[in-house]
Amino acid sequence: MKEYDIIIVGAGPAGLRCVEVLTNNDPKLKILLLERKPEVGPKICAGGLTKKDLDLMDIPDHLFEHKIQRTTIKSPKYTSVNEKEGLIVLYAIDRREFGQWQADKLKNTNVDLMTDAKVTSVEENKITVNFSDEYSYKYLVGADGVSSIVRRYLKLPVKKRLVTFQYRIPWKDEVRFEMGLNSKYFHSWYVWIFPHKESLSVGCACNPEIMSPKKLKVNFHKWLKENNFDISNAKYESFPISYDYRGYKFNNIFLIGEAAGLACGFTGEGIYQALVSGEEVAKSIIDGSYVSEPMQKILKYNRIQHKILNILIKAGPLRNFFFNMIVFLLKKKGSDSKISKGLS
Ligand SMILES: Cc1cc2nc3c(=O)[nH]c(=O)nc-3n(C[C@H](O)[C@H](O)[C@H](O)COP(=O)(O)OP(=O)(O)OC[C@H]3O[C@@H](n4cnc5c(N)ncnc54)[C@H](O)[C@@H]3O)c2cc1C
């Protein structure tokens, strides 16, 4: 059995960031990063980053498919279009490219990165890969997303989830970023239109305990038809998002990113939380007495978002009134910087 100081399960943004910080701090550490897919990166996602992601990492310009300045937010009654010269509100990335860029940083380091390597069992101080190969660890990090095997080993259930439906629609026209708030179709959540190089990602989400996924799917298709989207050549995708946070440190085992339930149950955003938790857990492993302020900040950010979500869920028939009020206020002059701040 091969021995490692640290084993990280899952090479998404959380796992890759964690390994990068660990190896930069101590190049001698023996680290194993395991990814079940044949290559690092691809993930069903709208691929939206905000300024706070850029503040965290020096992301090169060529990774941005679009720098979005113009935002359109719609409610049943109003439409708010905002654009300010020079003010970038969102950045569109391709998840494969982003993952490959993160993985490239590990070249010429001591890290063993294995793809096609699915962790099939977790035990105290050792794991098994592809049902046969065993590796021992001093520290184990679960960065394996929404269905984390490390989280299951810790016996932590995932009760708060979103289901998502998304179409990648071939598109070569204008850069189009939109959010649609309409309780009739999407309950307390929203529909997004997100621009990529040669496609639009158009999708929606809901908590299946609040709204049935079947109903969301029917409503989504009605909405697509009403908004003249041709999905005949589009790629259909669906993937869950976990926002059931129950802690991240369990003796010598850590959870980061969505394995820890750190995504946001309202916006569905999770890349930033994945990157921050990856970095902060790396620092905690290096220094056992490290107290992480950034972790407290993302937990606070998520709590605020979840309070807003709960208000909307409880608002019942008043929900569209709130949505109309929000979009009416956003129509006011100067809202572009408020939208940018809100998203960041
Ligand atoms: C439709 C949709 C749209 C989204 N849009 C956005 C957005 O615009 N902006 C944003 O910030 N967030 C968005 N998110 C959320 C975002 O994709 C996730 O929160 C983020 O990818 C979480 O990162 P992670 O590293 O924790 O997990 P992941 O990115 O899920 O990575 C986990 C990795 O672990 C691997 N793995 C899993 N199990 C095993 C195993 N047993 N052994 C080995 N490897 C394993 C997986 O293959 C995967 O590569 C969206 C999500 C969805 C579903």
Description:
This protein has 344 residues and is an alpha/beta fold. It folds into 2 domains: 2-46 and 94-158 and 245-309, FAD/NAD(P)-binding domain, CATH 3.50.50; 48-92 and 160-241 and 314-343, D-Amino Acid Oxidase, Chain A, domain 2. The chain has helices at 13-25, 51-56, 95-104, 149-153, 183-186, 213-226, 271-286, 293-314, 319-330, 335-343; strands spanning 2-3, 6-9, 31-34, 48-49, 64-68, 71-74, 79-82, 90-93, 112-114, 119-123, 126-129, 133-136, 139-142, 161-170, 178-180, 191-195, 199-206, 235-238, 241-242, 249-250, 253-255. Helix 1 (13-25) runs parallel beside helix 3 (95-104) and helix 1 packs parallel to helix 7. The model has no long low-confidence stretch (mean pLDDT 95). Bound molecules: flavin-adenine dinucleotide. Residues 9-15, 34-37, 43-48, 118-119, 143-145, 149, 164, 166, 203, 239, 241, 257-259, 263, 268-272, 274 line the site of flavin-adenine dinucleotide.
Examine the secondary-structure arrangement and name the CATH architecture of the largest domain: 3-Layer(bba) Sandwich
CATH homology superfamily of the largest domain: FAD/NAD(P)-binding domain
Helical amount = 25-40%
Largest sheet: 8 strands, mixed
What is the oligomeric state here? single chain
The count of helical stretches stands at 10
Number of domains: 2
Distance between the termini: 45 Å
List low-confidence stretches: none
Radius of gyration equals 21 Å
Strands, total number = 21
Shape: globular
How would you state the average pLDDT, rounded? 95
Q: Give the C-level CATH assignment of the largest domain.
A: Alpha Beta
- The helix/strand class is alpha/beta
CATH topology title of the largest domain: FAD/NAD(P)-binding domain
Could you say which small molecules are bound to this protein?
flavin-adenine dinucleotide
How much of the sequence lies in strands comes to 25-35%
